[in-house]
Amino acid sequence: MINEFTIRIAGEAGQGMQTIGELLCRVFKKSGLGIFSNQDYMSRVRGGNNFFQLRVSIKPVFTLREKADIIVALDQKSHGLHKAGLKDGGIIILDKKKFNISENDNTFFDAPLYETAINSGGSDIFINTVSCGIVTAITNMEFACLSQAIKDIFADKGADIIEKNIAAAKAGYDFANASYKKEKLKLNAPPLKSTLLMNGNQAIALGAIRAGCKFYSAYPMTPSTSIMDTVAHYAKEFNIVVEQAEDEIAAINMIIGASYAGARSMSATSGGGFALMVEGISLAAMTETPIVVVDAQRPAPATGFPTRTESADLDFLISAGHGEFARVVYAPGTIEEAFYLTIKAFNIAEKYQIPVLIMTDQHLADSERNIEPFDLDKVRAQRYIISKEDSRNITGYKRYQLTESGVSPRAIPSWIEDAIYADSDEHSEEGHIVEDGATRIKMVEKRLYKKMAGLVKEIEKPAAYNLEKADNVLLGFGSTYGVLKEACETLGESFGFAHLSQVWPFPSEEISLLFKDKKNIITVENNASGQLARLLMRETGIKVNNSILRFDGRPFNLDDLVKRIKG
Fold first, then answer.
1. Sign of CA dihedral 113, 117, 118, 123
2. Domains and CATH numbers, the chain
3. Taking the complete model, does pTM exceed 0.90, yes or no?
4. What is the pLDDT of residues 385-439, one digit of tens each?
Protein backbone atom coordinates (compact mmCIF):
# COMPACT_ATOMS: atom_id res chain seq x y z
CA MET A 1 0.00 0.00 0.00
CA ILE A 2 1.43 3.39 -0.97
CA ASN A 3 1.08 6.57 1.07
CA GLU A 4 1.77 9.15 -1.64
CA PHE A 5 2.59 9.75 -5.28
CA THR A 6 3.83 12.60 -7.46
CA ILE A 7 2.47 13.68 -10.85
CA ARG A 8 4.35 15.89 -13.33
CA ILE A 9 2.64 17.43 -16.37
CA ALA A 10 5.12 18.73 -18.95
CA GLY A 11 4.83 20.50 -22.28
CA GLU A 12 5.24 23.77 -24.16
CA ALA A 13 4.04 27.04 -22.69
CA GLY A 14 0.44 27.50 -23.79
CA GLN A 15 -0.51 23.80 -23.73
CA GLY A 16 -2.44 24.08 -20.49
CA MET A 17 -0.23 22.41 -17.87
CA GLN A 18 -1.63 24.77 -15.27
CA THR A 19 -5.19 23.83 -16.24
CA ILE A 20 -4.45 20.12 -15.77
CA GLY A 21 -2.70 20.85 -12.51
CA GLU A 22 -5.55 22.95 -11.15
CA LEU A 23 -8.11 20.30 -12.14
CA LEU A 24 -6.13 17.50 -10.51
CA CYS A 25 -5.56 19.56 -7.36
CA ARG A 26 -9.31 19.93 -7.01
CA VAL A 27 -9.92 16.23 -7.70
CA PHE A 28 -7.56 15.12 -4.93
CA LYS A 29 -8.73 17.85 -2.58
CA LYS A 30 -12.33 16.67 -3.00
CA SER A 31 -11.12 13.19 -2.05
CA GLY A 32 -9.67 14.43 1.24
CA LEU A 33 -6.02 13.93 0.31
CA GLY A 34 -3.13 16.26 1.14
CA ILE A 35 -1.64 18.09 -1.85
CA PHE A 36 1.33 20.29 -2.63
CA SER A 37 1.83 21.69 -6.12
CA ASN A 38 4.33 23.96 -7.81
CA GLN A 39 5.01 25.26 -11.32
CA ASP A 40 8.32 25.35 -13.17
CA TYR A 41 7.88 27.67 -16.12
CA MET A 42 9.92 29.73 -18.55
CA SER A 43 9.53 33.46 -19.12
CA ARG A 44 7.86 33.10 -22.50
CA VAL A 45 4.29 32.95 -23.73
CA ARG A 46 4.80 30.04 -26.15
CA GLY A 47 7.38 27.31 -26.61
CA GLY A 48 10.10 26.17 -24.24
CA ASN A 49 9.34 23.47 -21.72
CA ASN A 50 7.29 23.99 -18.60
CA PHE A 51 5.92 21.62 -16.04
CA PHE A 52 3.44 21.49 -13.18
CA GLN A 53 4.26 19.09 -10.36
CA LEU A 54 1.74 17.79 -7.84
CA ARG A 55 2.46 15.71 -4.76
CA VAL A 56 -0.52 13.81 -3.30
CA SER A 57 -0.50 12.11 0.10
CA ILE A 58 -2.74 10.58 2.75
CA LYS A 59 -1.40 13.25 5.14
CA PRO A 60 -0.63 16.97 4.80
CA VAL A 61 2.50 17.65 2.73
CA PHE A 62 4.68 20.76 2.66
CA THR A 63 7.28 20.28 -0.07
CA LEU A 64 8.11 18.64 -3.39
CA ARG A 65 9.71 15.28 -4.20
CA GLU A 66 12.58 14.95 -6.66
CA LYS A 67 11.01 12.33 -8.94
CA ALA A 68 7.53 11.60 -10.24
CA ASP A 69 5.41 8.43 -10.36
CA ILE A 70 3.45 9.72 -13.35
CA ILE A 71 4.74 12.03 -16.06
CA VAL A 72 2.30 13.40 -18.63
CA ALA A 73 4.14 14.49 -21.80
CA LEU A 74 2.03 16.89 -23.85
CA ASP A 75 4.65 17.44 -26.54
CA GLN A 76 7.36 15.48 -28.30
CA LYS A 77 10.31 16.82 -26.30
CA SER A 78 8.89 16.35 -22.82
CA HIS A 79 9.33 12.59 -22.47
CA GLY A 80 13.04 12.87 -23.23
CA LEU A 81 13.58 15.92 -21.06
CA HIS A 82 11.80 14.47 -18.04
CA LYS A 83 12.49 10.74 -18.20
CA ALA A 84 15.39 11.09 -15.75
CA GLY A 85 12.84 12.51 -13.28
CA LEU A 86 10.73 9.32 -13.33
CA LYS A 87 10.75 7.01 -10.32
CA ASP A 88 11.49 3.32 -10.74
CA GLY A 89 8.24 1.67 -11.74
CA GLY A 90 6.74 4.97 -12.86
CA ILE A 91 4.94 5.67 -16.15
CA ILE A 92 5.07 8.32 -18.85
CA ILE A 93 1.74 9.08 -20.52
CA LEU A 94 2.34 10.18 -24.11
CA ASP A 95 0.99 10.02 -27.66
CA LYS A 96 3.51 7.89 -29.60
CA LYS A 97 1.80 8.36 -32.94
CA LYS A 98 1.61 12.15 -32.67
CA PHE A 99 5.18 12.40 -31.40
CA ASN A 100 6.62 9.94 -33.98
CA ILE A 101 8.02 7.66 -31.29
CA SER A 102 8.67 4.11 -32.45
CA GLU A 103 10.65 2.74 -29.51
CA ASN A 104 9.03 0.38 -27.05
CA ASP A 105 9.62 1.31 -23.46
CA ASN A 106 7.90 -0.31 -20.50
CA THR A 107 7.61 3.08 -18.83
CA PHE A 108 5.40 4.38 -21.65
CA PHE A 109 1.61 4.37 -21.50
CA ASP A 110 0.69 5.14 -25.09
CA ALA A 111 -2.53 7.14 -25.33
CA PRO A 112 -4.02 8.82 -28.43
CA LEU A 113 -4.23 12.19 -26.66
CA TYR A 114 -4.66 14.34 -29.77
CA GLU A 115 -7.04 12.02 -31.61
CA THR A 116 -9.19 11.59 -28.51
CA ALA A 117 -9.26 15.36 -27.95
CA ILE A 118 -10.45 16.01 -31.51
CA ASN A 119 -13.04 13.21 -31.45
CA SER A 120 -14.50 14.11 -28.07
CA GLY A 121 -14.09 17.90 -27.89
CA GLY A 122 -13.70 18.91 -31.52
CA SER A 123 -10.15 20.33 -31.14
CA ASP A 124 -6.70 19.25 -30.00
CA ILE A 125 -6.74 22.00 -27.39
CA PHE A 126 -8.64 19.52 -25.22
CA ILE A 127 -5.56 17.28 -24.80
CA ASN A 128 -5.17 18.72 -21.30
CA THR A 129 -8.59 17.54 -20.14
CA VAL A 130 -8.13 14.19 -21.93
CA SER A 131 -4.90 13.81 -19.94
CA CYS A 132 -6.75 14.75 -16.76
CA GLY A 133 -9.22 11.97 -17.35
CA ILE A 134 -6.41 9.44 -17.86
CA VAL A 135 -4.60 10.48 -14.66
CA THR A 136 -7.87 10.43 -12.70
CA ALA A 137 -8.48 6.85 -13.81
CA ILE A 138 -4.91 5.66 -13.16
CA THR A 139 -5.00 7.10 -9.64
CA ASN A 140 -8.34 5.39 -8.95
CA MET A 141 -10.28 8.61 -8.41
CA GLU A 142 -13.99 8.99 -9.10
CA PHE A 143 -14.84 10.70 -12.37
CA ALA A 144 -17.55 12.69 -10.59
CA CYS A 145 -14.78 14.58 -8.75
CA LEU A 146 -13.16 15.56 -12.06
CA SER A 147 -16.48 16.49 -13.63
CA GLN A 148 -17.26 18.83 -10.72
CA ALA A 149 -13.76 20.32 -10.85
CA ILE A 150 -14.26 21.12 -14.56
CA LYS A 151 -17.57 22.83 -13.79
CA ASP A 152 -15.91 24.89 -11.06
CA ILE A 153 -12.86 26.00 -13.06
CA PHE A 154 -14.74 26.74 -16.31
CA ALA A 155 -17.81 28.22 -14.62
CA ASP A 156 -17.42 31.54 -16.46
CA LYS A 157 -16.74 29.97 -19.87
CA GLY A 158 -20.28 28.92 -20.71
CA ALA A 159 -22.13 25.59 -20.91
CA ASP A 160 -20.68 24.56 -24.30
CA ILE A 161 -17.05 24.78 -23.11
CA ILE A 162 -17.90 22.93 -19.90
CA GLU A 163 -19.65 20.13 -21.80
CA LYS A 164 -16.76 19.71 -24.26
CA ASN A 165 -14.19 19.56 -21.48
CA ILE A 166 -16.23 17.00 -19.55
CA ALA A 167 -16.63 14.91 -22.72
CA ALA A 168 -12.88 15.04 -23.39
CA ALA A 169 -12.06 14.13 -19.79
CA LYS A 170 -14.53 11.23 -19.84
CA ALA A 171 -13.02 9.92 -23.08
CA GLY A 172 -9.57 9.92 -21.46
CA TYR A 173 -10.93 8.35 -18.29
CA ASP A 174 -12.67 5.54 -20.21
CA PHE A 175 -9.61 4.91 -22.38
CA ALA A 176 -7.36 4.49 -19.34
CA ASN A 177 -9.81 2.18 -17.58
CA ALA A 178 -9.95 -0.03 -20.69
CA SER A 179 -6.25 0.06 -21.65
CA TYR A 180 -4.11 0.57 -18.56
CA LYS A 181 -2.79 -2.84 -17.49
CA LYS A 182 -0.51 -1.98 -14.58
CA GLU A 183 -1.68 -1.73 -10.98
CA LYS A 184 -3.37 1.59 -10.32
CA LEU A 185 -1.97 4.09 -7.84
CA LYS A 186 -4.49 3.99 -5.02
CA LEU A 187 -4.40 5.98 -1.80
CA ASN A 188 -6.69 5.35 1.13
CA ALA A 189 -8.14 8.80 1.57
CA PRO A 190 -8.51 10.05 5.16
CA PRO A 191 -11.87 11.35 6.44
CA LEU A 192 -13.00 14.36 4.44
CA LYS A 193 -12.16 17.80 5.85
CA SER A 194 -13.23 21.21 4.71
CA THR A 195 -10.04 22.66 3.23
CA LEU A 196 -8.99 25.65 1.16
CA LEU A 197 -6.79 25.33 -1.92
CA MET A 198 -4.47 28.31 -1.97
CA ASN A 199 -1.03 29.63 -2.85
CA GLY A 200 1.14 32.09 -0.94
CA ASN A 201 0.25 35.15 -3.00
CA GLN A 202 -3.46 34.56 -2.55
CA ALA A 203 -2.93 34.20 1.20
CA ILE A 204 -1.06 37.52 1.36
CA ALA A 205 -3.81 39.26 -0.61
CA LEU A 206 -6.55 37.84 1.62
CA GLY A 207 -4.53 38.78 4.71
CA ALA A 208 -4.28 42.35 3.44
CA ILE A 209 -8.03 42.49 2.89
CA ARG A 210 -8.67 41.07 6.36
CA ALA A 211 -6.28 43.68 7.82
CA GLY A 212 -8.36 46.48 6.31
CA CYS A 213 -6.18 47.44 3.34
CA LYS A 214 -8.05 50.12 1.39
CA PHE A 215 -5.45 51.19 -1.16
CA TYR A 216 -3.21 48.96 -3.26
CA SER A 217 -0.82 50.23 -5.90
CA ALA A 218 1.78 48.23 -7.83
CA TYR A 219 3.43 47.72 -11.17
CA PRO A 220 3.10 44.11 -12.43
CA MET A 221 6.26 42.08 -11.79
CA THR A 222 6.55 38.31 -11.63
CA PRO A 223 6.08 36.62 -9.22
CA SER A 224 4.18 39.28 -7.24
CA THR A 225 1.45 40.13 -9.75
CA SER A 226 -1.19 37.68 -8.56
CA ILE A 227 -1.32 39.53 -5.22
CA MET A 228 -2.65 42.54 -7.11
CA ASP A 229 -4.93 40.30 -9.19
CA THR A 230 -6.48 38.80 -6.05
CA VAL A 231 -6.95 42.15 -4.29
CA ALA A 232 -8.48 43.57 -7.48
CA HIS A 233 -10.86 40.60 -7.69
CA TYR A 234 -12.32 41.51 -4.28
CA ALA A 235 -11.85 45.29 -4.56
CA LYS A 236 -15.47 46.17 -5.22
CA GLU A 237 -16.78 43.91 -2.47
CA PHE A 238 -14.44 45.40 0.16
CA ASN A 239 -14.23 49.01 -1.11
CA ILE A 240 -10.54 48.87 -2.02
CA VAL A 241 -8.90 51.19 -4.53
CA VAL A 242 -6.46 49.27 -6.75
CA GLU A 243 -4.14 51.32 -8.94
CA GLN A 244 -1.75 49.83 -11.50
CA ALA A 245 1.02 52.43 -11.40
CA GLU A 246 3.29 53.37 -14.28
CA ASP A 247 6.33 52.10 -12.33
CA GLU A 248 7.41 51.04 -8.85
CA ILE A 249 8.51 54.54 -7.84
CA ALA A 250 5.01 55.82 -8.48
CA ALA A 251 3.51 52.83 -6.69
CA ILE A 252 5.35 53.38 -3.41
CA ASN A 253 4.75 57.12 -3.47
CA MET A 254 1.04 56.47 -4.00
CA ILE A 255 0.78 54.16 -1.00
CA ILE A 256 2.68 56.66 1.16
CA GLY A 257 0.20 59.36 0.14
CA ALA A 258 -2.81 57.12 0.74
CA SER A 259 -1.49 56.08 4.15
CA TYR A 260 -0.81 59.71 5.10
CA ALA A 261 -4.50 60.32 4.34
CA GLY A 262 -5.49 57.48 6.69
CA ALA A 263 -5.98 54.48 4.38
CA ARG A 264 -4.14 51.25 5.11
CA SER A 265 -1.96 50.82 2.04
CA MET A 266 0.17 48.16 0.38
CA SER A 267 2.33 47.37 -2.64
CA ALA A 268 4.05 44.23 -3.92
CA THR A 269 6.92 43.73 -6.33
CA SER A 270 10.05 41.65 -6.87
CA GLY A 271 13.68 42.54 -6.16
CA GLY A 272 14.20 44.72 -9.23
CA GLY A 273 11.05 46.71 -8.50
CA PHE A 274 11.90 46.95 -4.82
CA ALA A 275 15.28 48.43 -5.79
CA LEU A 276 13.34 51.34 -7.31
CA MET A 277 11.28 51.71 -4.14
CA VAL A 278 14.11 52.17 -1.64
CA GLU A 279 14.03 55.98 -1.65
CA GLY A 280 10.32 55.71 -0.88
CA ILE A 281 11.08 53.32 1.99
CA SER A 282 13.30 56.01 3.52
CA LEU A 283 10.62 58.63 2.90
CA ALA A 284 8.07 56.52 4.77
CA ALA A 285 10.55 56.15 7.65
CA MET A 286 11.33 59.87 7.85
CA THR A 287 7.69 60.95 7.64
CA GLU A 288 6.72 58.07 9.96
CA THR A 289 4.07 56.87 7.56
CA PRO A 290 3.00 53.22 7.91
CA ILE A 291 3.19 51.12 4.74
CA VAL A 292 3.41 47.41 3.89
CA VAL A 293 5.51 46.23 0.92
CA VAL A 294 5.98 42.68 -0.38
CA ASP A 295 9.18 41.56 -2.09
CA ALA A 296 8.40 38.31 -3.95
CA GLN A 297 11.95 37.26 -4.76
CA ARG A 298 13.33 35.77 -7.94
CA PRO A 299 16.91 35.15 -9.10
CA ALA A 300 18.93 38.29 -9.81
CA PRO A 301 20.84 40.53 -10.46
CA ALA A 302 18.94 42.56 -13.03
CA THR A 303 16.22 40.55 -14.79
CA GLY A 304 17.87 37.27 -13.83
CA PHE A 305 15.48 34.32 -14.03
CA PRO A 306 12.16 36.19 -13.96
CA THR A 307 9.98 33.10 -13.37
CA ARG A 308 12.23 31.12 -11.01
CA THR A 309 12.83 31.22 -7.27
CA GLU A 310 15.55 32.47 -4.95
CA SER A 311 15.90 34.00 -1.48
CA ALA A 312 18.87 36.28 -1.95
CA ASP A 313 17.34 39.62 -0.90
CA LEU A 314 17.79 39.06 2.85
CA ASP A 315 20.74 41.43 3.25
CA PHE A 316 19.05 43.91 0.93
CA LEU A 317 15.73 44.12 2.78
CA ILE A 318 17.06 44.46 6.31
CA SER A 319 19.15 47.47 5.22
CA ALA A 320 17.16 48.86 2.26
CA GLY A 321 16.83 52.61 2.17
CA HIS A 322 19.42 55.25 2.98
CA GLY A 323 19.92 56.16 6.61
CA GLU A 324 19.12 54.37 9.84
CA PHE A 325 15.57 53.68 10.92
CA ALA A 326 13.33 50.98 12.34
CA ARG A 327 11.67 48.48 10.08
CA VAL A 328 10.32 44.92 10.31
CA VAL A 329 10.97 42.15 7.80
CA TYR A 330 8.74 39.06 7.86
CA ALA A 331 9.58 35.89 5.90
CA PRO A 332 6.54 33.58 6.00
CA GLY A 333 7.25 29.89 5.50
CA THR A 334 3.75 28.56 4.91
CA ILE A 335 0.52 29.68 3.32
CA GLU A 336 -0.98 30.05 6.80
CA GLU A 337 1.88 32.29 7.93
CA ALA A 338 1.55 34.36 4.75
CA PHE A 339 -2.04 35.17 5.77
CA TYR A 340 -1.52 35.81 9.49
CA LEU A 341 1.78 37.71 9.13
CA THR A 342 0.27 40.03 6.53
CA ILE A 343 -2.39 41.06 9.05
CA LYS A 344 0.30 41.50 11.70
CA ALA A 345 2.38 43.54 9.22
CA PHE A 346 -0.42 46.11 8.87
CA ASN A 347 -0.91 46.29 12.64
CA ILE A 348 2.80 46.69 13.39
CA ALA A 349 3.31 49.22 10.58
CA GLU A 350 0.54 51.41 11.98
CA LYS A 351 1.40 50.90 15.64
CA TYR A 352 5.01 52.01 15.16
CA GLN A 353 4.48 54.21 12.07
CA ILE A 354 7.15 52.39 10.05
CA PRO A 355 7.58 50.47 6.79
CA VAL A 356 7.01 46.73 7.21
CA LEU A 357 8.37 44.40 4.55
CA ILE A 358 7.15 40.90 3.71
CA MET A 359 9.80 38.76 2.03
CA THR A 360 8.50 35.85 0.00
CA ASP A 361 9.68 34.14 -3.21
CA GLN A 362 8.36 32.47 -6.35
CA HIS A 363 8.22 29.06 -4.66
CA LEU A 364 5.91 30.19 -1.85
CA ALA A 365 4.09 32.66 -4.10
CA ASP A 366 3.01 30.05 -6.67
CA SER A 367 2.91 26.81 -4.63
CA GLU A 368 -0.54 25.53 -3.70
CA ARG A 369 -1.54 23.47 -0.67
CA ASN A 370 -4.89 22.54 0.73
CA ILE A 371 -5.11 24.02 4.20
CA GLU A 372 -7.66 24.21 6.96
CA PRO A 373 -9.77 27.40 6.96
CA PHE A 374 -8.09 30.38 8.61
CA ASP A 375 -8.94 31.25 12.20
CA LEU A 376 -10.21 34.78 11.64
CA ASP A 377 -9.94 35.56 15.36
CA LYS A 378 -6.26 34.59 15.61
CA VAL A 379 -5.03 37.98 14.39
CA ARG A 380 -7.36 40.96 14.27
CA ALA A 381 -6.94 44.29 12.52
CA GLN A 382 -6.02 46.97 15.05
CA ARG A 383 -5.99 50.72 14.31
CA TYR A 384 -3.57 53.13 15.98
CA ILE A 385 -4.87 56.57 15.02
CA ILE A 386 -6.59 59.40 16.85
CA SER A 387 -10.32 58.90 16.42
CA LYS A 388 -12.39 61.28 14.35
CA GLU A 389 -14.27 62.42 17.43
CA ASP A 390 -11.12 63.13 19.46
CA SER A 391 -9.46 64.85 16.51
CA ARG A 392 -11.98 67.71 16.61
CA ASN A 393 -10.70 68.87 20.02
CA ILE A 394 -6.95 68.88 19.28
CA THR A 395 -4.99 72.14 19.34
CA GLY A 396 -1.25 72.66 19.06
CA TYR A 397 -0.82 69.32 17.32
CA LYS A 398 2.73 67.99 16.98
CA ARG A 399 2.99 65.31 14.31
CA TYR A 400 6.43 64.18 15.53
CA GLN A 401 5.95 64.67 19.24
CA LEU A 402 8.74 63.11 21.30
CA THR A 403 7.42 60.29 23.47
CA GLU A 404 8.90 57.56 25.63
CA SER A 405 7.99 54.89 23.06
CA GLY A 406 9.15 56.92 20.07
CA VAL A 407 5.63 56.75 18.60
CA SER A 408 3.77 60.05 18.21
CA PRO A 409 -0.04 60.34 18.33
CA ARG A 410 -1.14 60.14 14.68
CA ALA A 411 -3.94 62.37 13.42
CA ILE A 412 -5.63 62.05 10.04
CA PRO A 413 -5.52 65.30 8.01
CA SER A 414 -9.17 65.32 6.98
CA TRP A 415 -10.35 64.80 10.57
CA ILE A 416 -8.29 67.36 12.47
CA GLU A 417 -8.90 71.10 12.29
CA ASP A 418 -5.39 71.93 13.49
CA ALA A 419 -2.54 72.14 10.95
CA ILE A 420 -0.36 69.11 10.24
CA TYR A 421 3.19 69.63 8.98
CA ALA A 422 5.11 66.70 7.48
CA ASP A 423 8.53 66.86 5.90
CA SER A 424 11.17 64.59 4.38
CA ASP A 425 13.89 66.89 5.73
CA GLU A 426 14.94 66.57 9.34
CA HIS A 427 12.27 68.31 11.36
CA SER A 428 11.08 69.47 14.74
CA GLU A 429 8.25 67.91 16.75
CA GLU A 430 5.85 70.20 14.87
CA GLY A 431 7.20 69.06 11.49
CA HIS A 432 9.17 72.19 10.58
CA ILE A 433 12.58 71.84 8.88
CA VAL A 434 15.53 72.17 11.28
CA GLU A 435 19.33 72.18 11.02
CA ASP A 436 20.46 71.90 14.65
CA GLY A 437 22.29 68.82 15.91
CA ALA A 438 20.41 68.47 19.18
CA THR A 439 17.04 68.00 17.45
CA ARG A 440 18.63 65.62 14.96
CA ILE A 441 19.90 63.39 17.76
CA LYS A 442 16.49 63.27 19.42
CA MET A 443 14.72 62.41 16.17
CA VAL A 444 17.16 59.63 15.24
CA GLU A 445 16.77 58.17 18.71
CA LYS A 446 12.99 58.39 18.28
CA ARG A 447 12.88 56.73 14.84
CA LEU A 448 15.54 54.10 15.52
CA TYR A 449 16.38 53.29 19.14
CA LYS A 450 13.00 53.78 20.78
CA LYS A 451 10.95 52.10 18.06
CA MET A 452 13.37 49.17 17.80
CA ALA A 453 13.15 48.67 21.56
CA GLY A 454 9.39 48.24 21.19
CA LEU A 455 9.64 46.05 18.08
CA VAL A 456 12.03 43.62 19.79
CA LYS A 457 9.24 42.83 22.27
CA GLU A 458 6.90 41.90 19.42
CA ILE A 459 9.17 39.51 17.51
CA GLU A 460 7.52 36.53 15.86
CA LYS A 461 9.14 33.61 17.62
CA PRO A 462 11.02 31.02 15.50
CA ALA A 463 9.29 27.70 14.86
CA ALA A 464 11.21 24.83 16.45
CA TYR A 465 11.05 21.06 15.96
CA ASN A 466 12.76 18.36 18.06
CA LEU A 467 15.51 20.66 19.32
CA GLU A 468 15.66 19.07 22.77
CA LYS A 469 16.71 15.67 21.40
CA ALA A 470 18.50 16.70 18.21
CA ASP A 471 22.27 16.63 17.81
CA ASN A 472 21.97 18.25 14.37
CA VAL A 473 19.98 21.44 13.78
CA LEU A 474 18.81 22.81 10.44
CA LEU A 475 18.05 26.53 10.23
CA GLY A 476 16.17 28.33 7.49
CA PHE A 477 13.83 31.21 6.70
CA GLY A 478 10.99 31.87 4.29
CA SER A 479 9.84 29.12 1.95
CA THR A 480 12.30 26.52 3.30
CA TYR A 481 9.93 25.70 6.19
CA GLY A 482 8.25 22.74 4.47
CA VAL A 483 11.43 21.03 3.30
CA LEU A 484 13.08 21.52 6.72
CA LYS A 485 10.09 19.97 8.47
CA GLU A 486 9.85 16.92 6.24
CA ALA A 487 13.63 16.41 6.08
CA CYS A 488 13.83 16.22 9.87
CA GLU A 489 10.88 13.83 10.00
CA THR A 490 12.66 11.65 7.42
CA LEU A 491 16.11 11.77 9.05
CA GLY A 492 14.91 10.82 12.54
CA GLU A 493 15.36 11.99 16.12
CA SER A 494 18.95 13.15 15.75
CA PHE A 495 17.73 16.03 13.57
CA GLY A 496 15.69 19.09 14.44
CA PHE A 497 15.11 22.46 12.86
CA ALA A 498 14.40 26.10 13.57
CA HIS A 499 12.66 28.32 11.06
CA LEU A 500 12.55 32.11 11.06
CA SER A 501 9.37 33.78 9.88
CA GLN A 502 10.79 37.11 11.03
CA VAL A 503 14.32 38.04 10.07
CA TRP A 504 14.36 41.64 11.31
CA PRO A 505 14.57 42.65 14.08
CA PHE A 506 16.56 39.42 14.33
CA PRO A 507 15.28 37.08 17.08
CA SER A 508 18.71 36.94 18.71
CA GLU A 509 17.60 36.03 22.22
CA GLU A 510 15.20 33.32 21.08
CA ILE A 511 17.72 31.72 18.70
CA SER A 512 20.50 31.82 21.32
CA LEU A 513 18.28 29.92 23.74
CA LEU A 514 17.19 27.38 21.13
CA PHE A 515 20.76 26.73 19.97
CA LYS A 516 22.35 26.58 23.41
CA ASP A 517 24.85 23.69 23.51
CA LYS A 518 24.04 22.73 19.90
CA LYS A 519 27.24 21.90 18.04
CA ASN A 520 26.20 20.96 14.51
CA ILE A 521 24.16 23.81 13.02
CA ILE A 522 23.43 23.86 9.28
CA THR A 523 21.65 26.64 7.41
CA VAL A 524 19.52 25.71 4.39
CA GLU A 525 19.30 28.68 2.03
CA ASN A 526 18.14 29.50 -1.51
CA ASN A 527 21.08 31.85 -2.14
CA ALA A 528 24.76 31.59 -3.05
CA SER A 529 26.44 33.33 -0.14
CA GLY A 530 24.85 31.93 3.02
CA GLN A 531 23.24 35.22 4.01
CA LEU A 532 21.36 33.74 6.97
CA ALA A 533 24.55 32.15 8.33
CA ARG A 534 26.31 35.53 8.20
CA LEU A 535 23.37 37.32 9.81
CA LEU A 536 23.25 34.72 12.59
CA MET A 537 26.95 35.22 13.29
CA ARG A 538 26.63 39.01 13.26
CA GLU A 539 23.62 39.16 15.58
CA THR A 540 24.37 36.29 18.01
CA GLY A 541 28.01 35.25 17.59
CA ILE A 542 26.85 31.72 16.67
CA LYS A 543 28.87 30.22 13.83
CA VAL A 544 27.26 27.50 11.72
CA ASN A 545 29.10 24.31 10.80
CA ASN A 546 27.81 24.23 7.24
CA SER A 547 25.43 25.91 4.80
CA ILE A 548 23.50 23.92 2.22
CA LEU A 549 22.88 26.35 -0.59
CA ARG A 550 20.80 26.16 -3.75
CA PHE A 551 20.82 28.96 -6.31
CA ASP A 552 19.91 27.39 -9.66
CA GLY A 553 16.50 29.06 -9.63
CA ARG A 554 14.76 25.96 -8.30
CA PRO A 555 13.42 25.26 -4.81
CA PHE A 556 14.78 22.60 -2.48
CA ASN A 557 12.96 19.30 -2.60
CA LEU A 558 12.80 16.66 0.11
CA ASP A 559 14.91 13.98 -1.57
CA ASP A 560 17.70 16.29 -2.70
CA LEU A 561 18.01 17.95 0.71
CA VAL A 562 18.14 14.63 2.56
CA LYS A 563 20.85 13.38 0.20
CA ARG A 564 22.92 16.53 0.68
CA ILE A 565 22.61 16.35 4.45
CA LYS A 566 23.73 12.73 4.46
CA GLY A 567 26.65 13.69 2.24
1. negative
2. 4-179 (3.40.920.10), 197-371 (3.40.50.970), 385-458 (no CATH), 463-566 (3.40.50.920)
3. yes
4. 999 999 998 999 999 999 999 999 999 999 999 999 999 999 999 999 999 999 9
